[in-house]
Amino acid sequence: MKEQLEAIQAEALDNVKKANNLKELQDIKVTYLGKKGSLTSVLRGMGKLSKEERPVVGEIANKVREAITNEIEQKSEILEQAALDEKLQHEAIDVTLPGRPVQVGGPHLLTQIVEEIEDLFIGMGFEVREGPEVETDYYNFEALNLPKGHPARDMQDTFYITNELLLRTHTSPVQARTMRQFNGNQTVKMICPGKVYRRDTDDATHSHQFTQIEGLYVDKNVRMSDLKGILDKFAKKMFGDDRKTRLRPSFFPFTEPSVEMDISCKVCNGSGCSVCKKSGWIEILGGGMVHPRVLEMAGYDSKEYTGFAFGMGPERIAMLKYGVDDIRNFYTNDVRFLKQYHHAKGGTL
User: GO molecular function, one example (predicted)?
Assistant: First the structure.
């Protein structure tokens, strides 16, 4: 059996040297070292040997296996390197050729609008604050003067998770949380951008998910004229210095008095057209003086502190500023639409 093992070793090493590729090398490994290989077949006959012969033959068999394995590994490294060299020769890269252009993305139009509005209000001393999108009924409604059963709740069809948890219908809860955090004795001057959700049928001007930016300023001696001045500056910054603004009486449960702000139509210069529905004005946001009840629930003394609040939709601002006629364009991820507004500047109606 010793002579048989030495013959297998010599034959295997000779075949390894003659192998020209990795496939032939693998076949050799299976032929000699596999489960049905020559070496394995010989070792199965060790049971017929005497107790004295088995250790001797076993040691020789291990040396044969080790010799064949080492030779195969060395040959494998040589063949792998040769295959790599050949591949590099056939796949050489001409570094003098011009490179392929890289498609560069950019901020979404809504992101640009939100950041532009944030920059404007930060420049006027406002800070940016955020809050949870899954909100409690208390902060979404009750803390904003909308107790359970209040008819104004019907103005906002709500996605309820439980009786007390919901997807926020506006970003006003961030204002209520901030006032509560300040314990009713600090100035609040903030804006809160974020996503909001309402049960609505999606069409050209409505979406069940959209963004809002709301602002709040609470301090001593805050007046409606302060609100008018800040919103007028905002409108001129976003739509041009030639825009006129006006405030109209309105109703919101959390402000009293409440107003809606219009800007003069750029298309017709206020004379009336299809864009402004012949009125010469376009509504862009709502606001008003913070209701005393809202201040008191947040811990503020409504006889000492006053404040104003306002809210706007970045989608509506973007549609007016850049002439977008369908709100769904912001969410369908059509690259043809999005490419038009990379780093958008100007472009008002």
Answer: phenylalanine-tRNA ligase activity
Domain 114-341 superfamily per CATH: Bira Bifunctional Protein; Domain 2 (3.30.930.10)
Q: Is 256 annotated as a binding residue?
A: yes
Q: List the domain boundaries for the chain.
A: 2-89, 114-341
The pLDDT of residue 88 is 78
Contact 278, 270 (CB under 8 A): no
Q: Which of 262, 272, 236, 248 is nearest to 316 (CA)?
A: 262
CA distance 95 to 84: 20
For 186-201, give the DSSP string.
S-EEEEEEEEEE----
Helix or strand holding residue 84 (H, E): helix 53-90
Please list, residue by residue across 129-150, b when 16 or more beta carbons sit within 10 angstroms of its beta carbon and e when fewer do. bebeeebbbebbbebbbbeeee
**Which sign, positive or negative, has the C-alpha torsion 280, 285, 289, 293?**
positive
pLDDT in tens, 6-60: 787 888 888 888 888 888 888 888 887 777 777 777 766 666 667 777 777 677 7
State the pLDDT at residue 178.
95
pLDDT digits (tens, 9 = 90+) for 252-281: 999 999 999 999 988 787 778 877 788 889
Report residue 254 as tokens. 């959390």
**Percent of the chain's residues with pLDDT above 70:** 93
Is 258 within 8 Å of 250 (Cβ atoms)? yes
| Closest C-alpha among 154, 349, 150, 155 to residue 243 | 349
